[in-house]
């Protein structure tokens, strides 16, 4: 539903605010992604790439499989694969064969990837501070909690 074409609710009233949770979340996500991408531009990373590198770094020596990383990032494996290609091309990550299951690939952050993540961290902090200054520090904390609760709630997982 677009904001220009409002559909009457159960009581015949046209809502003044979009009632579609998915649409509202997507609009906010696009706005935030654009802001973070703009701030991260000097280090030639998108916010999605920063998120992947950050997640890999947070795991330390516990290398995730493609499936595990996709689950943690709430992405399908195909989309994650598309996001990993440029990171691999730029030698920020490497894919290794899992010694326990040769069919699986483990994702490792390279030294170049760690350096890029460290370089990007100061720009990410600028974007983070900018958002919190505009939205409120506590409100941002509360928002992250709500969004993560939604992202990891099995009730919203793929259903038939």
How would you sum up this structure, described in words?
This protein has 160 residues and is mostly helical. It has a domain at 40-148: Orthogonal Bundle (Arc Repressor Mutant, subunit A), CATH 1.10.10.10. The protein contains 6 helices and 2 strands; from the N terminus they run H-H-H-H-E-E-H-H. The protein has helices at residues 21-40, 47-58, 66-73, 77-89, 111-135, 137-151, and strands spanning 93-98, 101-109. It has a two-stranded antiparallel sheet. Helix 1 crosses helix 5, helix 2 crosses helix 5 (111-135) and helix 5 (111-135) crosses helix 6. The chain is globular, with a radius of gyration of 19 Å.
Brief sketch in words of this structure:
This protein is 58% helix and 9% strand. The protein is mainly α.
Please tag this protein with its features.
globular, 6 helices, 160 residues, mainly alpha, 9% strand, Arc Repressor Mutant, subunit A, two-stranded antiparallel sheet
Topology:
Layout: H1 21-40, H2 47-58, H3 66-73, H4 77-89, E1 93-98, E2 101-109, H5 111-135, H6 137-151
Antiparallel strand pairs: 1-2
Rg on CA atoms, Å: 19 Å
Shape: globular
Global structural class? mainly alpha
The amount of beta strand, in percent, is 5-15%
What does the average pLDDT come to?
A: 89
The profile of the biggest β sheet is: 2 strands, antiparallel
Count every helix, treating DSSP H or I runs of 4 or more residues as helices.
6
CATH superfamily of the domain at 40-148: Winged helix-like DNA-binding domain superfamily/Winged helix DNA-binding domain
Proper CATH architecture of the domain at 40-148: Orthogonal Bundle
CATH topology of the domain at 40-148: Arc Repressor Mutant, subunit A
Distance between the termini: 23 Å
Uncertain spans, ≥5 residues at pLDDT below 50?
Answer: none
| CATH class category label of the domain at 40-148 | Mainly Alpha
Reading the helices and strands in chain order gives: HHHHEEHH
Reading side by side through the largest sheet, how are the strands ordered?
Answer: 1-2
């Amino acid at each position: 539903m677009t904001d220009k074409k409002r559909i009457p609710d159960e009581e015949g009233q046209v809502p003044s605010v979009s009632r579609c949770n998915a649409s509202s979340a997507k609009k906010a996500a696009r706005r935030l992604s654009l802001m973070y991408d703009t701030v991260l531009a000097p280090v030639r990373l998108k916010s999605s790439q920063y998120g992947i590198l950050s997640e890999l770094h947070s795991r330390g020596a516990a290398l995730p499989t493609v499936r595990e990383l996709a689950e943690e990032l709430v992405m399908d494996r195909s989309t994650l694969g598309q996001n990993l290609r440029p990171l691999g091309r730029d030698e920020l990550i490497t894919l290794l064969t899992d010694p326990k299951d040769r069919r699986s690939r483990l994702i490792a952050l390279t030294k170049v990837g760690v350096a890029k993540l460290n370089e990007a961290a100061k720009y990410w902090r600028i974007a983070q501070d900018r958002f919190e200054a505009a939205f409120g520090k506590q409100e941002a904390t509360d928002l992250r909690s709500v969004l993560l609760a939604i992202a990891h709630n099995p009730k919203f997982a793929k259903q038939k």
